[in-house]
Amino acid sequence: MTLETNLFQEIQSVVTAFEFESVTVERKAVLQPLIDFIQEKYTSHEEIRLNLICTHNSRRSHLSQVWAQTAAAYYGIKNVFCYSGGTEATALFPKVAETLKHSGFRIQVIADGNNPVYAIKFSENTPPVIGFSKTYDDAFNPESGFAAIMTCSQADGGCPFVAGAEKRIPITFEDPKAFDNTPEQAEKYQERSLQIATEMFYLFSQIK
């Protein structure tokens, strides 16, 4: 497979260190329905719309959105559009932006306030991912023909029906919020970010 997007060197170094063997058999089984959805759309030359959903659209859904979009570009999978949303809107948690920056993403705040808007770039000549907190059915997100990917168990349980979703796929992650205001905070956010990144790169690596 031809790798088509040159990531920023710092991100490239992070990606090179990924070990897909660390993705357990159980996790691979959880990820398989999403691989199948992407493969089916890719084979049919259709747009691949992924809406990553978590309760507050503040942590895991943003990490998933950014890493999924980066992985799609890295593997040259065209027409992938990654979004994120919550069952309620809050704000992208600043530690998430800091964690992504630590992995080499270039981040610019393009609007301040209670719910800042971030431009998150992984490559020189690729449009940035726009990150801000919103509900999953916000006008910014697709209305139909997308996979609703539930990244937290609360959203999965509390959101039994996602209007417009063609498929609903739970791939839940532990919440790094549990470590906020503790000495382990930075380490745990980085750990969760790299787990999500490894799994997103693994699943896009499977698309043929």
From TrEMBL:
SUPFAM superfamilies: Phosphotyrosine protein phosphatases I. It comes from the Bacteria. PANTHER family: ARSENATE REDUCTASE. This is Low molecular weight phosphatase family protein. InterPro entries: Ptyr_pPase_sf. It comes from Flavobacterium qiangtangense. Gene3D superfamilies: 3.40.50.2300.
